[in-house]
Amino acid sequence: MNEEQGWIKTAQDGDRLVVAIGGRWTIGEAARLDDDLGRLSPGAATSVWIDMGGVERLDTAVAWILYRTVARWRDAGYAADFTRVRPEQTALLELVHAHDAPVECRPPSEPSARALVEHVGRASFEVLEETMMLLSFLGLTVQALGRSVVQPGRIRFTALISHMEKTGLDALPIVGLISFLIGVVLAYQGAEQLRRFGAEIFVVNLIGVSILREIGILLTAIVIAGRSGSAFTAAIGSMKVREEIDAMRTLGLDPMDVLVLPRLVALVLTLPMLAFFADMMGLLGGCLLAWGALGINPGQFVDRLLDAIPMWTFWVGIIKAPVFAFLIALIGCFEGFQVSGSAASVGQYTTRAVVEAIFLVIVFDAAFSIMFAYLGI
Amino acid sequence: MPSNDQTLVIRVRALRTQFGRQVVHDGLDLDVRRGEVLGVVGGSGTGKSVLLRTIVGLNPPVSGSIEVFGQDVATANAAERRAIETRWGVLFQDGALFSSLTVAQNIQVPLIEHTGLSAQIIDEITAIKIGMVGLPRDAAGKYPSELSGGMRKRAGLARALALDPEIVFLDEPTAGLDPIGAAAFDDLIGGLQRTLGLTVFMVTHDLDSLGAICNRIAVLAEKHVLVVGPMDEMLRYNHPWVHDYFHGPRARAARMT
């Protein structure tokens, strides 16, 4: 075990340079050996010998560095070779010689301008293809939903309840807390502005309209897209990677029935309830701030709220919930099925599912606004 | 016995591992000698892979000692542990390649991390490793998901060998390979072991591998190492499981070749 540390010595022997190396040369010291050999220059000598007599241990990395140094000297016109090489060292030198051929270590990269155009083109077609696939997935989902309506026996109630618990009940604390805090912040900022006009009481209108119409449901949908949409993709995606979905198919189970519908229906049922809860918590936050900072007591707050805000404002928010839920669950499950090959792909598609779900939720929210504007609500 | 200790690269004494209340190993002793190929066999659930994982430090033992290169792994500090880790390589069952990196980049991970070599030399060493394990050269730029199971194992072996380790741990290297591929992998391991002077710790079920390249075989049963020795000793050993294992129809078929 007590091997000598690697050393290197040079001696001039007539017009021959003898480089003697010895001790323990392994990959840990390979960089030092390469530096030392790189600094050596045969100078006036016409031949170079590497004397291996003192080497106690050698590995392939060091053998390669010795080999390439000798090759470099030969290319420079010197007569370079090894002397006093033991058989096991010869074997290593032969091994590295046998595999001395360059390989492409990195994935090929195109020249940048061409790559840019190609990248844009490919990405455009991918968007198109994905949209088509999403639409066909939508078709499959609707078909499966229809089947479940005709044959309620296909509905998996245990899975449905379990997903309702995971996506709904378990999300209550975070959804409630966020809405409460946003209610507080909105009321505070609104009060600051309205106080200048002596119109503090309108804070109630501000809170009522913004929370009930938009913020309650939008925040809930975004939180759930991040929380449950991602979970759907990750769960289905890792099942896909481990061939569990293929196994399901061979056992005569339809993944649409087993995996997609319970998640989709659970989310469509729970998101309106979560949105209602978020509305209430947002109003509570606004109410408490109005009481503390503006002296509007809860009784006045509620009176004013019922007076100023038509019931429709509340329904406008809640009506959006099942639609957003459908979008989030559809995207989450769809991206899960897109996962292929590796664990890295699960992460990639999960990110995609969240971003796409939030994007679509906001697009649909805008569409709802336009629709309600036309309807005059 | 210092002279004896020098030939031992792994020394496991009174090892006890358990998960929750389930005891996997109890009072397990095992020696691995320098330069040998040790095959570890045992029925499903006897903790072969757990033993491998425990020795390389992925699974903390409840009690007992594990010495690698004469150093107790449990008491080693971070620097000593890193020093030991650069002296062993592990091939996991399905290669455990990093899926976001190409084969070549997988092999380069330990080289970049642990050596101060220039990028060019690292590329050249990578090429040698890829050639050594018998991968075609165009596999270098491919991602693990584009490779077959056998090629993934070869790539995993190339990564395990990247730092020229003294010990290589192999977890079922031939499982899932076709007989020709498995035999080729055995030849590869045997050849590399002789050229590089490796010590090989191999968990396997493959009776052909056991006969072809293992110097000694350790049988895990009843929570400890039941018997260690060369193949002919296994054939004589009188224990129902060992007898069934080495005298079953598959074992007879393997010996006929």
CATH class of chain B: Alpha Beta
Largest sheet of chain A: 4 strands, mixed
Q: Radius of gyration of chain A in whole Å, from Cα?
A: 35 Å
- Mean pLDDT reading of chain A: 89
Distance between termini of chain A? Answer: 86 Å
Low-confidence stretches of chain B: none
- Low confidence ranges of chain A: none
Strand order of the largest sheet of chain A: 1-2-3-4
What's the total number of strands of chain A? Answer: 4
Number of helices of chain B: 11
Which overall shape of chain B is indicated by the principal axes computed on the Cα atoms?
Answer: globular
What is the count of DSSP helices of chain A, taking H or I runs of 4+ residues?
12
Average pLDDT of chain B works out at: 86
Global morphology of chain A: elongated
Describe this structure in words.
The complex is a heterodimer of chains A (377) and B (257). Chain A has helices spanning 27-39, 60-75, 87-98, 112-150, 157-167, 172-195, 203-241, 244-250, 255-294, 298-308, 311-338, 343-375; strands spanning 7-13, 16-24, 47-57, 79-83. Chain A has 377 residues and is of the alpha/beta class. The N and C termini of chain A lie far apart (86 Å). Chain A folds into two domains: 7-98, Transcription Regulator spoIIAA (2-Layer Sandwich), CATH 3.30.750.24; 142-375, no CATH class. In chain A, 72% of the residues lie in helices and 8% in strands. Chain A is elongated and about 110 Å long. Chain B is α/β, with parallel strands linked by helices. Chain B has a single domain, classed as Rossmann fold (3-Layer(aba) Sandwich), CATH 3.40.50. Helices cover 42% and strands 25% of the residues of chain B. Chain B is built from eleven helices and ten strands. In chain B, the strands form two sheets. Chain B has a six-stranded mixed β-sheet with strand order 6-7-8-3-9-10, sandwiched between helices. The termini of chain B are far apart. The mean pLDDT of chain B is 86. Classes of the chains: A alpha/beta (377), B alpha/beta (257). The A-B interface holds A 1, 26-28, 30-31, 34, 59-61, 64-65, 68, 88, 91-92, 95-96, 98-108, 340-345 and B 6, 70, 86, 99-100, 102, 104-105, 108, 114-118, 121, 123-132, 137-138, 140-141, 143-145, 163-164, 195-197.
